[in-house]
Amino acid sequence: MKRNVELVVISDVHLGTYGCKAKELLRYLNSVQPGTLVLNGDIIDIWQFKKSYFPKPHLKVIKKILSLATKSTNVYYITGNHDEMFRKFTDFELGKLKVCNKLCLTINHKKTWIFHGDVFDASVQHSKWIAKLGGKGYDLLIVINNIVNWFLERMGKEKYSFSKKIKNNVKKAVKYIGDFELTASELAIDNHYDYVICGHIHQPQMREVTNKKGSCTYLNSGDWIENLSALEYNDGTWEIFHYDEHKHLLKDDSHDEIQDINSADLMKIVTSFSL
Predict the structure, then answer these.
(1) Taking the chain (275 residues) in consecutive chunks of 10 residues, what is each chunk's mean pLDDT?
(2) How many domains would you assign to the chain?
(3) pTM, entire model
(4) What is the 3-state secondary structure (H, E, C) of 171-203?
(5) Residue 173, domain CATH
(6) Domain range for residue 263?
(7) Do 48 and 131 touch, CB atoms closer than 8 A?
């Protein structure tokens, strides 16, 4: 049975890359019935897009999102840096699907500000080629990590994350994450928001930030490459959903819910955005 969830936020899926855990995301999306679904940037990775690599599970995720939008779910696609091509379609609406650069909602009388977060990243704003090169290196690291974890699982050993190890041991990376969270929170406080929700840094988080001007709750939905996480809001409470903690409860349902959308036609649409 599907769980009814008032609001679901996911980000940094990076469909079209080797690191994307599309099958796991599809299982999660098939397990919930959200009233509102917010896609907070970097859902389709236009930077790394290759016609030769866009597997069926990746297409099924897009189909599932479209299926939700054709039924009872309000879907907001907030653009990020890896899918910045969609920014030319800002304010485009198709049924219950809307493309936007940021989203402001009132949730249980609380002002909520949702945006991807790449606006804080100087490497994206001023040296895009460096950021793209870094993205390719990260993708390669994930491929190697997946191979290593395949062997570790078969030896009965625990999985290992190269990038998490690097982030946790490199002071600059730790400082960047802390600065990112603090900057987003202080801006939210200045603008009288109760919640600020970001993606971009692939770090699921929920924390209270207080300064002399006030306080707010900072939240980050994480990613679907390593953390496999989402934000869920229900009955006045925010929670971080971690796939690995709940996967034993999720039904392995690969049923394609949209029979009237041809995968080849959908692939043509995706390809056209990457050009």
Answers:
(1) 94 93 96 97 84 87 94 95 88 91 95 92 46 50 66 72 54 63 92 96 94 96 96 96 89 57 64 59
(2) 1
(3) 0.79
(4) HHHHHHHHHHHHHHHHHHHHCCCCEEEECCCCC
(5) 3.60.21.10
(6) 3-274
(7) no
